[in-house]
Amino acid sequence: MPCCGKNRGEDGNQSEDERDITSRLEDQQQLINNSSGDAEVSEDGLINTGMLDTISQKYESLDYDTNFNSLLLDEVRSRGYKFVVRKDVLRWVVMFFVGILTALVACCIDISVEEGSKIKYGFLSWLTEKGVTDNALWMPYLSWVGLNVVPIMFGSFLISYIEPVAGGSGIPQVKCYLNGVKVPRVVRIKTLVCKAVGVTLSVLGGLAVGKEGPMIHSGAVIAAGISQGKATSIKVDTKTLPFFRQDHEKRDFVSGGAAAGVAAAFGAPVGGVLFSLEEGASFWNQALTWRILFGSMTSYFTLNMVLSTYRGYTGQLSNGGLLNFGSFENATYDYYEIPLFLIMGAFGGLLGAIYNHINYRLTVFRMRYITKPWLKMLEAMMVAAVTATAGFLMIYLISDCKSIGNDPTENPIQMYCNDGEYNVIGAIWFQTPEQSVRSLFHDPPGSHKMLTLGLFSVVYFLLNCWTYGLSISAGVFIPTLLTGAAFGRFFGTVLATLLPEYFGTQHGKYALLGAAAMLGGVVRMTISLTIILIEATGNLTYGFPIMVVLMVAKWVGDFFNEGLYDIHIQLAGVPLLGWEPPPLSATTYASGIMSYPVVVLNTKQKVGEVMEILKSTTHNGFPVVDNPMTSSITGKPSLGKLRGIILRSELIIMIQHKIYSELYHEWEGKLNIGLFRYAYPRYPDIDQIQDQVTPEERQYTLDLRPVMNPTPPTIVHATPLPQVFRLFRAIGLRHLIVTNDESEVVGMVTRKDLARYKVELQDGRVERTTMHITEQVE
Amino acid sequence: MPCCGKNRGEDGNQSEDERDITSRLEDQQQLINNSSGDAEVSEDGLINTGMLDTISQKYESLDYDTNFNSLLLDEVRSRGYKFVVRKDVLRWVVMFFVGILTALVACCIDISVEEGSKIKYGFLSWLTEKGVTDNALWMPYLSWVGLNVVPIMFGSFLISYIEPVAGGSGIPQVKCYLNGVKVPRVVRIKTLVCKAVGVTLSVLGGLAVGKEGPMIHSGAVIAAGISQGKATSIKVDTKTLPFFRQDHEKRDFVSGGAAAGVAAAFGAPVGGVLFSLEEGASFWNQALTWRILFGSMTSYFTLNMVLSTYRGYTGQLSNGGLLNFGSFENATYDYYEIPLFLIMGAFGGLLGAIYNHINYRLTVFRMRYITKPWLKMLEAMMVAAVTATAGFLMIYLISDCKSIGNDPTENPIQMYCNDGEYNVIGAIWFQTPEQSVRSLFHDPPGSHKMLTLGLFSVVYFLLNCWTYGLSISAGVFIPTLLTGAAFGRFFGTVLATLLPEYFGTQHGKYALLGAAAMLGGVVRMTISLTIILIEATGNLTYGFPIMVVLMVAKWVGDFFNEGLYDIHIQLAGVPLLGWEPPPLSATTYASGIMSYPVVVLNTKQKVGEVMEILKSTTHNGFPVVDNPMTSSITGKPSLGKLRGIILRSELIIMIQHKIYSELYHEWEGKLNIGLFRYAYPRYPDIDQIQDQVTPEERQYTLDLRPVMNPTPPTIVHATPLPQVFRLFRAIGLRHLIVTNDESEVVGMVTRKDLARYKVELQDGRVERTTMHITEQVE
User: Which residue, among A524, A711, A736, would best test binding to B if mutated, counting the most B CBs under 10 Å from its CB?
Assistant: First the structure.
């Protein structure tokens, strides 16, 4: 929803019997109606689906600033220091449970996938051997296709029909949430269920997917649910923890949940903390970070304990159990390898940029043509069938045989190999992508032929690229690591062939660095990824090469396009704010980016007038001003001095609970901050409550002063954009009021006003572009 | 310096011939003079040295907000995008050199200490053996005392006479700097030299000290020097990188330098990044963090390379060379050990609290009575002699013998042991504390007797406590780790004696956890310490126990007092701002904490008037207002509408370069932002330049508008303290102007106004206290 008149507003259905509202209101209405003509469309008159420079209307902002209204101050005064301590202790308790529950969900996914794939690939390898013997290879082939398509059908159904926001890896959604964008339904229980079940089915369906992104998203949902003490989807409200029902408190927990998810997905508690910070935090807070680390350590510990027990390591906590990429023995590297690392990084960045470009075109195609749920399901099932076909063809056509015993693989198939040998391709395909990554990292030198690795990396690259963005719940980390590991191992094998005395036994290292390069090139994360890879391989020695490779990959990739998550976020039209203001924006002033005119309210306003404004605008925040008639000393028309800001939700709650001045005796003592917290975060719509207000009550007065935020942050109109940006970002604002010298409201800056402004550089010229704001983008 | 009149101002020497300044100025002067009577003293009329609730006048703030004045905008307009890119590339280049130079300084310290102690302790052990044979033990004893006292004499001379700010570990100073406090001379070349040479002498002097803190401080100085392209102490100004001559740019580099120092000191690049963030960062910035990681990785790599080469490991980068605590083989722990970890943590927290209390009393004693430099030197030399005596007595009195070959030690002494055996105590004392820590972590089970360990930990605890705060350059990390390791190993030995089947071989692990507990109890850092210890031991497995131990130690310690660094910062009266506003401060408003009245300037003001104001006040920022005579529409007296803020330094530069309106033709085209940057950070005093201004020039006009910051952040007087605090902290402000509804300046909030306000809780009552502001505190 836009905040201000300049943005595209909706025409209100102004009924004839409401003619008694003030003329100022009418003027405002007029302004809103006029400005609807501004709606931006592409040259051919249609909203151009799949443009990178659109911002969707459907995303609202979260509000991380505290409203220090008199109700809050009453609470502070009356509840005292014990309340502060109690809240603080409860924050730790909540984080503890977030860690445990996240780990348990991760365990369920993990064990289901492990057991399911054991059965699936065991059956398939048995069937393949039988098919070779019986000369009936159609049997294993069709079974493979079937065993891929059926789980994907169910998994895709969950996403296409039940909860689309649970699709994909979940990392972009969590990133947006932490950035301050309210992504609808992203932290609901239903989303969690679809996500967790969906990702299990996706991995079982044999696609080029991982379960790590969804685990991170799951952690975020769990944190949101526990911290609020309620889950509206399943109609549970424990009525506990009401003081955490604020955007900024909830966001802190969601950061912790995401970190716990990373800890569970990669066995990387520190990586989890850094992930939360890299993706979300704007103001670093020591106590919060410490709680996040506590949550992710708890998650790591719980997961480790459960999986250790499940896999039969009892008692000892430190070994076994943990999901990781295996540790490297005798890890070492030499000076002369550093140029090779640079080359690998550059190549990874290039591959990543190509990947992102292909996926971008594909996503735009999907947005334009694959819009029906059944079409989405069909595409997912098709990819599942093609994946099986590609695997089968590779196994059938390439005869890369190795003697059994040299290489640890669970389901060796012989195919056309000699007795005592097994098909290497089969060993790669007949396991989950994660197990394949581990094979490529740790298989002894000479396990794979160059041709096999080269072909596999190309095929997997394409499959991976096609898979991401399907209507299924699936992460992109693991398949990208697998593609990169194959290409890295290919590189290592080439080196070993050329210079066997130097690189004869370095395959695993190059597989690891290839994986890092490819992942860095695709997602362009750097700090957290370095730590995650270090923690997942349990090896600090490779920290420096991994960092070099990731850095070069990011630089090279950034030369061509943006990271995969950012591309998807832009395509979805999310008004994400970066870390820094756009370059060269210092010569642009707040007056140039703000929305105006602004719909304002008086400190005391008739109920009917407020309802009319709520119905006729879609704004979320309304500056509250002194009655303008009394303050125009200069004789010029004036909007009145700023007294505060009030949110739509607060007005709705006031109307719903009939907090009218005339009924003071009825709500006296009832008006407290809890009223607003219990309704959080899903407030009723004005249409839902308007019938509760009698015509007589419409003439009553709403006194906004106890509820409004009396000291909202403001800027003057001459403030340069970088300063506006930093203030907005550092404090985590939703609305920033622009005033003139007389403290009169002249405009409002919202997230969309900042997000839609960027400096574009073309052919050496500096161009200022504003993005299109549209409601068409899904 | 205070910013505003309510603080203690200095009386100006107002000369008689200046009577033509406006009456407003006189009023302001009057206010300033009156308010000097407010100076706060203790009840007995004396400034109470060693109070925890004082704020010293000598600390100024750094300014991390950007002044978007028209000169900056001119630069942005004229230099374009290439300038942005160039600055960004240069930031990376600077960080690269910071990493390399920090590592080289660390290498010098490291190698000097290593070679020096090899000679010293080799000689001493030879002399001891000779003394036992000749029955002349006074010989090794006196030599030991001499070899301790002489280096300490030189080391202490450097700090007592040449550069006191180079004393101690340097971490509190860096912490204050990153927090936004300008600690005088903290990032100068002279400080670096004293620090580096001083710490080498301190470690060689055999005190209970480490070299890690000083390495961190060294990194910070190096970063400040390189990024500014000049070193005023040695009169070098390369005139390059002028655009980095701003507080916020410099601070970013100093963060990176500190991180590089941690990386070099502990071999912990990630720990370095987290240290910088935990201690300093307020607004987390992805690009900055990434550069910090790059700097610390470079430092780690360089140090590793140099030390590897020095120690004869050639070629391979990954092993050897690095300063660390050795890696733990077969690291593991069991469920039932978790309660033991909790107990260790609690005990460490308790010990830490006792340590901090003793050291606090000692520091107050020192502040009151050991004030002369020669006394400081004498105390340091005395501690050196006592340390040697304590070590000698332990070796002489306790006969803890072990057979040679069971335990790796460089300088075994036999003393009264049998042939083929060596004295264990001697082995601990005849090496640097760092090597002793490694011995306690990795000596095989049974190397040390319980009595030895117990006695050693008590003796070392006391020595360590006495040593910290001496007038020498020395860190507290390593001796605290050593104390903790001894106590932890004692604990482990007790467990092994009681339950040999469970804890027979766990001594090293308990030594590590004991070290963590003690360090956590003393310094109360958590996140970065966890990572530093993980990286320094090269072991991820113990991450969870280390975290548990650190957390419990912090909680227990915080129950009694604050961390060691914080105590020293408070004693020094530094106005440090915490992460969060004081609890329950929401009911306090900006009007209650601001300084007022404020000395303001007009947009155009006579040179003589400005000089008079600069001489008669010590303020650093002056709000610029419209001429108040023209704006008082309401008939009430008014201070004029806020137009901007100008800094003392900017006024001085304007006067120095004669930027007077009447001389426009002379400076036209010369006035650019470079003028202000080249003078940064040491601007001349007003007394130094007043003779350059002729009486005629005093009548000329200064037009402040092109130089002042036209859009300073402002708040209204009713803003609650937490909101003021967050704004101040998140943006990194130095001055925050308080206005009324009419945009008139009514007050000013500075760092000291916020720092001196805290909520104190006594006997369940909430008390609001303000700190004393004093100039007496050193």
Answer: A711
Asked if B73 reaches chain A (Cβ–Cβ under 8 Å), the answer is: yes
* Cis peptide upstream of residue B681 (ω within 30 degrees of 0): yes
Backbone angles phi, psi at A606, to 5 degrees: -65, 145
pLDDT band at A321 (very low <50, low <70, confident <90, very high): very low
CB spacing of A317 vs B300 below 8 angstroms: no
Smallest Cβ distance to B332: which of A76, A277, A316? A316
Confidence of residue B45 (pLDDT cuts 50, 70, 90): very low
The string of DSSP letters for A529-579 reads HHHHHHHHHT-STTHHHHHHHHHHHHHHHHHH---HHHHHHHHTT-----S
Choice among A327-331, A769-773, B692-696 with the minimum mean pLDDT:
A769-773
Q: With left for phi above 0 and alpha for psi between -120 and 50, is residue B180 left, alpha or beta?
A: left
Cα distance between residue A525 and residue A520, in whole Å: 6
Q: Which amino acid is at B339?
A: P
The SS3 assignment for B365 reads helix
Question: Is B83 within 8 Å of chain A by CB?
Answer: no
Instruction: Please report residues of A whose CB lies closer than 8 A to that of B534.
Output: 270
In three-state secondary structure terms, B744 is: strand
What is the pLDDT at residue A527? Answer: 79
Tell me the pLDDT tens digit for each residue of A15-51: 333 333 344 444 444 444 433 333 334 444 444 566 6
Phi-psi region of A89 (alpha: psi -120 to 50; beta: other; left: phi over 0): alpha
Helix boundaries (H) for B430-524: 433-442, 450-467, 477-498, 500-503, 507-523
Residue spans of alpha helices (H) in B158-211: 171-179, 189-204
ω before A628 within 30° of 0 (cis)?
no
Q: What is the pLDDT of residues A642-673, one digit of tens each?
A: 999 999 999 999 998 888 988 888 888 788 88
Distances (CA, A) of A432 to A120, A121, A200, A398: 10, 9, 11, 20
Residues 6+ apart with CB under 8 A from A777: A47, A49, A54, A56, A58, A571, A572, A573
Q: Tell me the torsion sign for CA atoms A118, A119, A120, A124.
A: positive
Q: Does A331 touch chain B (CB under 8 A)?
A: yes
Lowest mean pLDDT among A369-383, A748-762, B253-267, B574-588: A748-762
In the sheet with A714-716, reading across from the earlier edge strand, the strands are: A714-716, A735-739, A745-750
Contact between B448 and B400 under an 8 Å Cβ cutoff? The reply is yes
Q: What are phi and psi of B602, to 5 degrees?
A: -85, 165
Kindly determine whether residue A586 and residue B766, on different chains, have CB atoms separated by under 8 Å: no
State yes or no: pLDDT of A630 exceeds 60. no
What pLDDT is attached to residue A200? 94
**Is B281 within 8 Å of chain A by CB?**
yes
Instruction: Return mean pLDDT, chain A.
Output: 82
Retrieve residue A607's tokens: 């109920």
Residues of B with Cβ-Cβ distance to A317 under 8 angstroms:
332-335, 544
- Residue A597 preceded by cis peptide, ω within 30: yes
Q: Which residues of A touch B579 (CB under 8 A)?
A: 285-287
> Percent of chain A having pLDDT more than 70?
84
pLDDT tens digit sequence for A201-259:
999 998 999 888 999 999 999 999 888 877 766 777 777 777 888 888 888 899 999 99
Q: Are the beta carbons of A599 and A4 closer than 8 angstroms?
A: yes
Q: Is A766 on the interface with B (CB under 8 A)?
A: yes
- Confidence band, pLDDT 50/70/90 cuts, at residue A769: low
- R_g of chain B computed on alpha carbons: 29
